[in-house]
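Q: Convert this sequence to structure tokens.
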Amino acid sequence: MPWLSPQGRSAEPHYGAVWEPDIPVRNGNHGIRDLRWKDDWLHIVGGRKLLQLIPDEGLWRVQLPNGKLTGVMNRTRAKDTAMAWALRICE
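A:
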């Protein structure tokens, strides 16, 4: 089943593609300023762990909240994907 972006288009977060949902940074709720990296974990301010980067043969995967893993990608792209998912979780 394909992933769907907020606009209803197919947006596969695996195979190296980055899904960037259109989520504004809001002052009253959690936004990008509330997310912090510690080692391979993305935390929300206050300490709650949201997402983890998983090494895979020199590349990286993001472990999603449902336990599934994205496709392999470089570390920078994996962090970007994790941030996009975290903003989606926090909305």
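The two ends are 23 Å apart (CA to CA).
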